[in-house]
Specification:
heterotrimer; A mainly alpha (640); B mainly alpha (281); C mainly alpha (99); A: 2 domains; 3 strands; globular; C: mainly alpha
Chain lengths: 640, 281, 99
């Protein structure tokens, strides 16, 4: 990787991070004084960052030669041979992430102005959002794994704060803690990977590490790949660390849209794409990435079919779609661009879907139970339209965003070749069918059918209504993105060309299965899914109460394939037993020994203390005794 | 002095005259030291110490240090010991002269350690200095002059700084002693003899005040006279000593009362003995 | 007879002084014992001055006397002031330092 020093506007790319960070600092330190205009500042910093990011990207696009721009800021850590420089790396890969984060981020900030209008903690909310954007930008812009790690932990913190934003709700606090702990599990992997890099290469910068992967032994590379994957799984909610993501929906809906759908959860994909040279040399680790992706894809899709909580369905959908991306980046050079393209389009339509869900919740007194919705399309036409476009994009309706990018991933999977390719491709097609099923079910239950909501109490009557403009405009913009982004990124302005400086050009000459047939297959699966949804949900009355007598498959899906139970029995219970045993040992053995020593010392000091009589003559006696000892010793030394 | 100095020989062995002097005065000095430690009466202790110091002064003279010998006798024996006696007179003999040891095992331990220390140090010195050659201080080494001249020369040359610092030490000590011993009085509160005389004749007791220590249980000026009924005679209290409570006064030492250290010392704790004029137990 | 006898005598006097400090309770007598110890050290200094043929020992003994004089003055003043407040010259009564 060859980098050039930053010049022009790119030299000011640190502003991208500094602006939201300053916004967060002002809002957090300013206190109530900033309550009146705090949200405007929050929106402004991110919007300006978006403009700067756009300008930087344009400048980058116009550059000839190397497109990796390095900006050294200051020495972060200098200890012995470890010399970590804080710096930014602006290359095409960072650029698309910067645009996604600041672009979608700006829209969601604007949406939040309306969504959080009645919340007394709106200023705090915007401070956290700004903090998140700053940390996320640092994550994608840092020029070393350490800088990435700082951003990585920063988004973890912001995510924790935002999930627990309504910290008076026990469920929100529990979910935040769960997310934090499971993220830590992944972070340990990332931290260990960085330690290995330093131990083996003495550097953690992207240039230094990725440029010298050839010098590392195969085992080390595989270990690095697996540890980075562990980190990515934690952050992106991938198997086996996927359980925190649906619970994270306890946070405000804009948070779910921004962090747990569009940006933060894609950090794992970014990490793996950024570390592509490592995975290029570690095929075993790469295979594990695809397997993880495929498993997560299926888990997410199956669980998504059974939930009645609109946000949880979308959350499992996110898990499933990120599984697609992992599957893609695990496929190697042929999959990077497909995965990243899906990441971008997913960022649009999933954010739009979440904002739509938020709009519905806003209308329904924050209810999330789809069995209590129904027939909303008449009451909320804008929300219905934008949500519907996002839905069509997600299930891969021809010519919309998801169609282009998901097809590309499935194509790449088949192109992987051999049995693996067929298995992965098959999983992808099956996932597409399931996606169509659960999303259609969601649409039917929410927007069609007979209205099933209660009248509500007198003070807070349930009266579904369209959301204000400040909320609908971002949804419309995102809906437009959902429709057009796929075509733009794959056909009009191919992402593969934009990213070729990073991943090189990998034009496959021949396909294992013809793209046309794959297209037919995927559309067929989608149509089957939609039809099944109509069969099971759309044509019948939706029961207001969830049926208790269901098949084991549905019960398993309702419990998210027992992921929490597995986590509990495999990790939590043994951990508790171990902790209890350790507590026992600590109390009885360690504390016993320590207390015993303390008691011995205390007793002996009490006895010695009796010698402390306060009588000068006793002390003088001690002095004379000492003098005798000294005289005796001197005599013994000189005479002996 | 010249005779004694001449008696001092050179070489390892000393002259006969000095030997005689040592063997006469040495035991006397030792006896004085022991007497000081073992005398119950502090005044006797002081006199024993004077005895020892005089012997040491003679030793100094014999050992070619006539100036030090003179200083020893004049300053130490003369001035410092007199100061001791003054303070003794002021403080008085009190129960701390009791022969009963209050700290358990203190005497035994002190004796054992003392004998051990003397044995170890004495043996070490004897062993190390058996062949100590006497160089002697003849006139050449004194710079051609006498002992005093030699000491003066050293004091004002090599030890000048220490000498000057000593002066600071002395002035500090003098000021310190004044501060410690001083009792603050209101200026002008001291009455003239005329006023005192008038005041006395205005009372119903024109005769002299009872002397301190009359019927007292201690012989200190701080102990007031006791009236026939056992109460202290307030007007017998010496001036210059702060007023005191009868309970805080030292008690006479009676073997029958020596049950505990506090009893032996006369308690300072009012709660233990709150009846004036005697013990209730 | 040799010079060692002076030194042995000094050691014995020093020890007697030390034991006196330990066994006597009257602060003034304790003080006298300290003076005895100082004097015995002076005797050693004078003896060694004679043995080595220089006057330095005598000068130092002189300084010891000066310091002893200063110490006696201050010490006796302290005993006086303690006596004034506590009505006792026993070193055992001044045992509150323990607390």
């Amino acid at each position: 990787m060859h980098t050039v020093p930053a010049s022009g506007l790119l030299a000011a790319s640190w502003l991208l991070i500094a602006l939201p960070l300053a916004g967060a600092a002002v809002l957090l330190l300013g206190g109530r004084r900033t309550d009146r205009w705090g949200h405007l500042l929050g929106v402004a910093t991110v919007a300006v960052a978006f403009v700067i990011g756009l300008a930087c990207t344009v400048q980058l696009g116009g550059m000839s030669g190397s497109k990796s721009v390095n900006l050294d800021l200051f020495t972060f850590i200098s200890a012995g041979t470890l010399d970590v420089k804080a710096g930014l790396l602006f290359d095409p890969l960072s650029a698309i992430f910067v645009l996604l984060i600041t672009g979608v981020g700006s829209l969601i900030h604007i949406y939040s102005v309306g969504y959080m209008a009645d919340d007394p903690g709106r200023r705090r909310f915007f401070a956290y959002l700004n903090l998140f954007v700053a940390a996320m930008l640092l994550l994608v812009l840092g020029n070393s794994y350490v800088a990435l790690y700082v951003g990585w932990e920063g988004v973890g913190l912001a995510s924790f704060l935002l999930i627990a934003f309504w910290y008076r709700r026990p469920a929100a606090v529990t979910a935040a803690k769960k997310a934090f702990v499971m993220n830590r599990v992944g972070d340990v992997g990332l931290a260990l990977a960085i330690f290995i890099m330093f131990a083996q290469l003495g550097t953690t910068s992207f240039v230094g590490v990725l440029g010298s992967t050839g010098a590392l032994a195969g085992g080390v590379l595989t270990a690095l790949g697996l540890l980075l994957l562990l980190g990515a799984c934690g952050k992106s909610g991938q198997f086996p660390l996927q359980a925190w993501l649906p619970d994270a929906m306890e946070g405000p809906t804009p948070v779910s849209a921004l962090i747990h759908a569009a940006t933060m959860v894609t950090a794992g994909v970014y990490l793996i794409a950024r570390s592509a040279p490592i995975y290029d040399h570690a095929p075993a680790a790469r295979t594990v990435v695809t397997i993880i992706g495929a498993i997560t894809l299926m888990i997410g899709a199956i669980a998504g079919c059974a939930y009645d909580d609109i946000k949880k369905v979308l959350a499992y959908s996110t898990v499933s779609q990120i599984g697609y991306m992992f599957l893609a980046v695990g496929l190697g050079p042929i999959g990077y661009v497909a995965g990243l393209a899906h990441l971008l389009t997913h960022g649009f339509f999933k954010a739009g879907l979440f904002l739509g869900a938020g709009s519905v919740m806003h209308a329904m007194n924050d209810s999330v139970d789809m069995r209590r919705f129904g027939g909303l399309w008449r009451r909320m036409p804008v929300t219905f339209a934008t949500f519907g476009l996002g839905y069509l994009a997600l299930i891969g309706f021809p010519l919309l965003s998801g169609y282009w990018t998901k097809d590309a991933i499935i194509e790449a999977a088949f192109d992987h070749g051999g049995t693996t390719g067929y298995v992965l491709g098959g999983v992808g097609v099956l996932g597409a069918g399931l996606t169509a099923f659960y999303m259609t079910r969601l649409m039917f239950m929410t927007f069609f059918g007979r209205p099933r909501w209660d009248a509500g109490s007198a003070s807070t009557p349930v009266d579904p209504h369209e959301s204000p403009g400040v909320m609908t405009v971002p949804m419309i913009v995102l809906a437009v993105g959902s429709v057009a982004a796929g075509y733009l990124l794959t056909q009009a302005f191919p992402l593969s060309a934009w990213l070729s400086p990073v991943f090189g050009t990998n034009k496959l000459e021949s396909h294992v299965v013809a793209p046309l047939w794959i297209g037919v297959l995927v559309i067929g699966a989608m149509v089957l899914g939609v039809a099944a949804a109509w069969l099971f949900v759309g044509r019948r009355e939706v029961p207001v109460v969830r049926p208790a007598r269901v098949s084991p498959v549905v019960r398993a899906a309702r419990n998210a394939l027992y992921a929490d139970a597995i986590n509990e029995s495999l990790f939590m219970r043994p951990g508790q037993w171990l902790a209890r045993a350790l507590v026992f040992v600590d109390n009885r053995r360690v504390d016993g020994a320590v207390n015993g020593i303390a008691a011995t010392l205390g007793g002996s000091s009490a006895r010695l203390g009796r010698a402390q009589t306060g009588f000068v003559r006793s002390y003088a006696l001690g002095m004379l005794g000492g003098a005798v000892v000294v005289a005796g010793a001197l005599l013994a030394v000189t005479a002996g | 002095m010249t005779v004694l100095a001449a008696a001092a020989g050179t070489g390892t062995h000393l002259g006969g005259a000095e030997t005689v002097v040592f063997w006469i005065l040495g035991p006397i000095a030792l006896a004085g030291a022991l007497g000081m430690v073992f005398s119950r009466n502090a005044v006797h202790s002081a006199l024993w110490l004077v005895n020892t110091m005089l012997c040491l002064g003679v030793f100094y003279v014999v050992q070619q240090a006539p100036f030090l010998g003179a200083v020893q006798i004049i300053v130490y024996t003369g001035a410092i010991m007199i100061l001791f006696l003054f303070v003794l007179m002021l403080v008085g003999r009190d129960s701390s002269d009791s022969v009963v040891e209050t700290l358990r095992g203190q005497r035994v331990a002190a004796t054992v350690l003392g004998i051990g220390f003397a044995g170890l140090v004495g043996a070490g010195i004897a062993r190390a200095t058996t062949n100590l050659t006497v160089t002697g201080l003849n006139t050449d080494q004194l710079g051609g002059n006498g002992n005093i001249n030699g000491i003066a020369r050293l004091l004002f040359t090599r030890y000048l700084l220490a000498f000057e610092v000593t002066s600071a030490l002395l002035i500090t000590a003098a000021v310190g002693a004044m501060v410690l011993a001083h009792i603050e009085r209101e200026p002008g509160s001291r009455r003239t003899q005329k006023e005192l005389s008038r005041a006395r004749f205005l009372t119903d007791r024109p005769q002299t005040l009872p002397g301190p220590g009359v019927f007292a249980r201690g012989n200190s000026v701080a102990a007031p006279a006791l009236l026939p009924d056992g109460r202290p005679a307030e007007d017998s209290l010496a001036t210059g000593i702060e007023p005191q409570e009868i309970e805080q006064m030292p008690r006479p030492t009676d073997r029958a009362q020596l049950g505990s250290p506090d009893d032996a010392l006369g308690t300072l704790d009012p709660a233990r003995d709150d009846s004036p004029g005697g013990r209730t137990r | 007879m040799t010079l060692s006898w002076y030194l042995v005598l000094a050691a014995v006097l020093f020890t007697i002084g030390a034991v006196g400090v330990l066994v006597r309770r009257n602060a003034i007598v304790v003080f006298m014992c300290v003076e005895l110890m100082l004097n015995s050290v002076n005797l050693t200094l004078v003896t060694f001055a004679r043995a080595s043929g220089t006057l330095d020992g005598q000068v130092i003994a002189f300084f010891v006397m000066v310091v002893a004089a200063a110490e006696v003055v201050v010490g006796l003043a302290i005993i006086m002031s303690i006596y004034r407040t506590r009505r006792s010259a026993s070193v055992d009564d001044a045992n509150l330092l323990k607390y």
